[in-house]
Amino acid sequence: MIEAERSEAPGSLEDGDRLSRRGFVQRAAALGVGASLVGAGSAVAAPRRVRRASGKITLEYWKFDDPSDKGLTPVIKQWNDANPNIQVKLSTFPFADYTNGTKLTTAFASGKGPDMFWVSASTMLDYVTNGVAADVDDVVGSSRSKYSKAAIAAVTVSGKMKAIPFEQSPMGIYYRTDFFDSAGIKPPKTWDDLRAAAKELTTSKRSGIVIEPSPGAYSDFAWWSFLWSAGGEVVDPAWKKSLLETPQAAAAFQLWGDLVRDGSAPKKLATASNDIGHIGRGDTAMQICGLWGVAVMATFKNAPYSVFPVPGNGGHGPVSVYGGWMQMLNKHSKNLEAAKAFTRWQWVTQTKFPHTWACVTNTEFSTRADVRASCAAQFDTPQHKIFQNKLLPISRAEPRYSSQMLTAVSDGLQASMFSGKTGEQSAKIAADGVNRFLATYKGAH
Amino acid sequence: VGYGFLIPDVVGMTIFLGLPILGAFWISLHNWSMIGSSTWAGLSNYRLVWHDAAFRAALKITAIYACSFVPLFYACSLGLALLVNQKLRLTGLFRTAYFLPFMFSLVISSVAWQLLLDERLGPVNIVLGWVGIPAQAWLGDERLALASVVVVTLWQGIGFGMIIFLAGLQDIPRSYYEAAVVDGAGAWRRFWSITMPMLKPTTAFVVVISSINAIQVFDPIYILTQGGPANSTTTAVYYIYQEGFKYLQFGYASALSVVLFGVILVFTLVQLRVFRQDDLRG
């Protein structure tokens, strides 16, 4: 049972957040009326001006469209009811327009970027290197110890936290136990077994395995587990050169190419491979997908399934990747302090909403240990336990590579799957692309 | 008074076309991520364009697409227009049916085609399977993906071409055909000696517009293939989109846009010159 905490009180900004409020008032007063009248481009002067002009602040909060948006509505309402002077307005946009799309970029270009917005690891660095991301160490504050170290590290650039990570979704290979049992096949422990099983389970109506065939960051995300389970890496820690031209990376490229050439993996999917419906409908025997698929699979009553990690290769143990959205704050927001206060209340100081978000509205592991523990009652299926006990412990955060690096890797995967290139040739294509980018890149990593 | 009537159009085009074009050129002289500050880059973005092998590859794919799409669009549109121009029963129904795909959003029809062309479960492969043709990955095979995009865009667009040609056909005076019949000209002769010459202004319009649209193709690529597989459908505009919105290099993307604008301009002027030599004024 989740106990209500003092900071869960919706009036927490007014009553429970005195330090930041006091700091805000002090700084605003120090700047004086003159500064507030001219705006001065200050992140603290402007809220005072807005508040005086209209009596309230409206925080723009942006994310992509998703059925789970309904889980955000009550918490925003709770805040808005308790904070009439600081209203939060949630706006959602079609996924493709939002992620690597036009919505956020055009908004920031016209100076109308949101105060708070969601980013993934694949776009995070763009907002950091372009000076949009506010430091959020003070938002987490003394609660830092509740967060997993990996989650904090994944959002820390040059020693500063640039976003609030609130969910972790490890990837695993879902498989239909009925198909496996009928064929007398056990969950694969090696890449050879995986390839053989995929081939054997392929029929005219069913693919052996679904991997992501379309180019883009998601195919890279699904492939990281294979790369790491073979002992490969994309780039050296200093971001000086690519490490993809290695036998380990070549083997990972080769495997995806082999799965497609064998006819085991579809060359094109009507819906993306993050839709676990491929397994649920029986269109495939195996599918690489994240923890979110467990909740969706509950709607497929006659689809017995289980999950196993991507097998290790070449003497390396299995490694999984976890993804998850993060909340970033606009450094140039005129209402940054208010945005920090809301974000702190939403994700950091209370337990109720992060719990509801992780294990009631969605099926995700929270980045906070206390919230994760509170989800034990909800995460009680055998599949949840596999993710909890077998996949999460071997998971690494999705790396925050630049879009150019992700495209280079995606080009290598496409070459392997569709152009008949060998693993070595594909690895070279990817490595060349990464190195071309690194040769001129001077930003943070 | 005549110039007065032109003012709204001129003002509208200046604001909504002229200024953005000038703006794009100005941005192309900068390095700008769109979400950060910009720095002056001079002509360095244009030097990068010159050395960009991926953009050249995208231009080549665009040329292949345009050279496939435009003749097919022209032939299919004209063929359908000739069919529905006959005085037959249910002609109105057929005109509506052929024009209907043009009324659909290209995004919606692209999604529908994605399902139709699915390798394992798509109706297209199921039907082909009945006559012994093995299932194909229409959108997932390097050799077939661009051709599939051509088919989808043709299906969606030829209704529009048909209507334009139909208007052109119905503008041709009946007396010309009657005189030709009196002179003993057969149907084939009447088509080549009356219909085709009289359709030249319509042809010029259809060819120029469809060429520009083909060079600017983006939506079906974005929905159907995302430039894949292995960049085999990465057209020039899709490439520019990636540079701008994926890599946040708006200065460079603008330089690419300016170059593509130049390519389209030259191509269009050449086409207009070709048609003018044939005397568009009849």
Structure explained in plain terms:
The complex is a heterodimer of chains A (445) and B (282). Chain A has 445 residues and is α/β, with parallel strands linked by helices. Helix content of chain A is 47%, strand content 13%. Chain A is built from 21 helices and 13 strands. Chain A has helices at residues 12-16, 18-38, 45-54, 72-82, 95-98, 103-109, 121-129, 137-140, 149-154, 177-183, 191-201, 217-229, 247-261, 277-280, 292-297, 336-349, 352-361, 369-374, 382-391, 403-418, 423-440; strands spanning 57-64, 86-93, 116-119, 156-157, 160-161, 164-165, 169-176, 207-210, 284-290, 305-308, 320-323, 326-329, 395-397. In chain A, strand 4 and strand 5 form a beta hairpin. Chain A starts with 11 loop residues before the first helix and ends in a 5-residue tail after the last helix. Chain B has 282 residues and is mainly α. Chain B has 13 helices and two strands. Chain B has a two-stranded antiparallel ribbon. In chain B, helix 1 (2-28) crosses helix 13 and helix 3 crosses helix 12. Chain B is globular and about 75 Å long. Chain B starts with a helix and ends in a 5-residue tail after the last helix. The A-B interface holds A 96, 100-102, 104-106, 108-109, 113, 126-127, 129-132, 204-207, 213-216, 266-270, 283, 403-404, 407, 411, 414-415, 417-419 and B 33-37, 114-115, 117-122, 135, 137-142, 222, 225-232, 242, 245-248, 250.
